[in-house]
Write a structure and sequence with these properties.
The chain contains one helix and no strands. By secondary structure, it is an all-alpha fold. The protein has a domain at 15-42. The protein is elongated, with a radius of gyration of 23 Å. The termini are far apart.
Length: 52
């Protein structure tokens, strides 16, 4: 059987674009964490945690 042709090799992204992509991903992850923490602070705790 004939195999489908290999996809053309992707051009290697320049270091600046690679850095920007990693930075954007890190910022999105950081934002999700901060939002989760803010939501946790907004909702009243079910049990007293001893902080006060």
């Amino acid at each position: 059987m004939a195999q489908p042709p290999d996809p053309p090799p992707k051009p290697t992204p320049d270091p600046k674009a690679e850095r920007e992509a990693r930075l954007a991903a890190a910022l999105r992850a950081n934002l999700r964490k901060r939002k989760a923490q803010a939501r946790a602070r907004e909702s009243p705790p079910d049990k007293p945690d001893g902080q006060g």
